[in-house]
């Protein structure tokens, strides 16, 4: 079990996984999804906590459109569609994005919760709502027709490739962080004042470890928490979007990410390491449990591998093939709109990831 817990967020720095035994959970073909509109951060938090305690709730998350408009989505597995009911799908080309579907429901939710029967997969098309920003970047109208025409490119894998190949990842905040429940209000206020990025995705996370030998790895401190209370949980915030216009250059972008890292640490939260990480090495290991992490690395002879900090840190970006006048001309070229975006789309097409979405849309 020490290797199991130690591998969490280790990014291959304990070795290469070659064999897994996975215990699956039975699923049903449908989910009965209930949508509730909450008008304050406090009420949103309260409902999320209440839904977690219900034994019959299988899914829970929320979309925060603003501090005064959060739609909480609570789901239960369903084997059948209710008599006279219909299934709302989100995977076919003609289907709405889930984000668009929820946004349209807000006015109806002002009077009472609403429930629909949906298929399992909700967020892949449109990448939650991140694909919306590609329409804005290319000055393309955001409509049912344009979403239909561009659907092959509107899947998370394809957009992720295009984003990073284009270099536009250096100008869009893409971070997931978790903060304690009782600091949510403060964090939302800070996000609005500092970054003003909406929507936000909310997802309760259980981090407490109550199994034997769980005191290993980067997050071992959570083993001491009580998983039956909110003290054993964090509220994940998906913060994905362009920065305010005043923070549009590379230096300001790094500064904004640094501010976010410091705020999350100040609130006693955690940042998920799939995204850009700008910690200094000292800051990183003050935030994550190096002692437990090093102990499991030593036990399994992995000390010769790079550390997780070595793998996730963002270093200064340089182009070793460009220098002098050519480098200057290249920087001017990339500054011309929409060259970066077009290059990212080209790389996504050449990568072929956009073809993978076709098999999903048949569901």
Automatic annotation (TrEMBL):
Transmembrane segments: 325-350
InterPro entries: Diminuto-like
Keywords: Membrane, Oxidoreductase, Transmembrane, Transmembrane helix
Protein name, UniProt field: Uncharacterized protein
Annotated source species: Sporothrix eucalyptigena
